[in-house]
Amino acid sequence: MFKLLIFDWDGTLMDSAARIVSSMQSAANSLSLKVPGSEAVRDIIGLSLEHAINILIPGISPADNQQLSDAYSQHYRYHDQSPTPLYPGVEQSLQSLNSKGYLLAVATGKGRAGIDRVFTQTGLGPLFIASRGADETKSKPDPLMLKQILEQTGVSAQQALMIGDTSYDLEMAQRIAMPSIAVSYGMHALEKLRSYQPILEVDKFQQIETWLDRQMEKKCE
Fold it and tell me: Cα dist. 216→104, 138, 209, 211 in Å?
């Protein structure tokens, strides 16, 4: 049975798309760079910031990439007031899963500073035994961050689940034969996620715990 549940953050646990899109567009505009469209920004959420910017603005110089990255971070943290709530049921389900003995971890495109901020902001930090951000390891969809979490927790890929809303989440799991769960309410369309053969699709976060409970009941029969 599954021992370790690894969650993406943005678009899976937290509804932060509006702030990410607005902050990226405002940052690009402030530097007189091409302002990317909303869908283009949504599509790169989950990647490291450097990788995401290279996709949004092909051919951008390393210096401009760094400038835009810094401007984006400033807008996201200090200027944009778009709310970033947890999705319904996330806090309660994570607490319940933790109480049932599941190990919980986070694998995200955020940097370490961003992870620490949202852990503190939401109060969820103590629930997670491990976390990896894009500035500590390779960006999704490279599976290195998953491998590092597995090594830290001593759990095999087959005993872990990657839960995410983007193709980057599911692809990195697929690349190390880790089962995955696709959430339909985040950044990427479910049709796109299905090509990575998730073992479950959910449109509400609480459905993950319900499904895990059923798997445990089947084991006990």
Answer: 17, 34, 11, 9
pLDDT in tens, 5-43: 999 999 999 999 999 999 999 999 999 999 999 999 999
∠ CA 4-9-14 to the nearest 5 degrees? 125
User: Are the CB atoms for 20 and 52 separated by under 8 Å?
Assistant: no
What are the strands, taking DSSP E only, across the chain? Answer: 4-7, 103-107, 130-132, 160-164, 180-183, 200-202
**Domain assignments of the chain as residue spans, ordered by start:** 4-15+86-220, 17-79
Q: Is the pTM of this model over 0.85?
A: yes
Fold exhibited by the domain 4-15+86-220: Rossmann fold (3.40.50)
Strand, helix or coil for residue 164: strand
CATH placement of domain 17-79? 1.10.150
